[in-house]
Amino acid sequence: MARYRDDKKWIEDLNNETRSFAPIKRGSGKTDGETRAFSLEEGRDEPREKCEERGSLKALSTGVIIWRIGRPLLILAVSAALVFFIGLAIYHYVENSYVAPVADNTSQTVYVEIKSGSSLSKIATLLYEKGIIRNKFAFQLYADLNDLGGSLKAGEYNLSPGMTLEQIADILKEGNPPRTVTKVTFVEGSTVEDMAGKLVDSGMFDQAEKNEFLKLCDDVDAFSGYDFIAALKGTEKLNSRRYALEGYLAPNTYQFYTDATPKEVITKLLDQFKNVFNDEYKQRAAELNMTVDQVVTLASIIEWEATEGDFKKVSAVFHNRLAKDDTFSSCATLRYVTGVKKQTYTDEEIKIDSPYNTYMYKGLPLGAINNPGVKAIDAALYPNQEFIDQGMYYFCNKNKTSSELVFAKTLKEHNANKAAYEASPTATPQPSPTANED
Question: Of 163, 178, 193, which residue sits at a domain end?
């Protein structure tokens, strides 16, 4: 019990005693603060002197204060700018890739026929395939958002790649009234001027539209979307041709809308030529080392020089003459030069200085002299091989009562054939020895 009393007394002495501790030293050897007093009874410590305040605003410079306040605002502004420019870039990408017109500032139109019962998806696909819109889904989405899905009408339209989605949708919503149709037949060997006259006679064109048609038939740039027309730009003396498109307006029976423009009519004829002169024909022309224009020019001469049964034989004669770089001496080309179709031409007519005159100039003329049919084109590409091998070099009409031809390898044989023709009786009416009569 005595020890307990001593321990209690010792604790009381500690409570009444102020203890001092040595200052805490840092690595520099300096003290950190003043001597601190502890009270065991209170269980906490109090500094003998108040420590110096640290990190207060008055200890910071103005620049630091501004930076601490402005830094969050700057980060916010930069983030907003990034979001804006990224959004703008995405908008322009979507606009240019999906929504914007396919072509800017173009008056070109494309014929589009939307059949009855076509779904919105089918309409969008058709417009995309025709090159009218950039993206099928974008058009469908536009139509759906504007509740136009069931409002687009079937019909025939001329739409432009320069139209916006809104303009296209408005036209399809409005619809087109029925258009009347005119049937026109262009026979094989028709010239550009023949076709223009036919269009007037059918009631499709007036004189102003006829003139526009003829003008467009000499405008390569207006139809340079066709590779065979674009290729004409490199042709020698193109500007000297009577009509640049002569030879490419495929003869056939067509149904045109009565209100069709001259350009729409020409486009339809060129589309048909594109179908006729297929990849097989292009490959064959390359094998013969001939351009499409050379094949068409040769075919146009064959068309006027013979009937269908002799096409390939006449072609063989001209191929043999081409191989020897000789003149064709074709009456068919004089018909184009003079505008007159007849059996024989005078010496004066034969000497007319024209790039189409094959009596004056060797090889093929400047360009086609008419618009040949499929069989004449085929004959130009596939001449009678037997006649080529035999070296057939001349032909003329057998007599004046038929269009049957006789062929010769030598000039002596040819002159004998001509004499027989001259001695033959004349029929009434007289057939042309060079024309393909339908």
Answer: 178
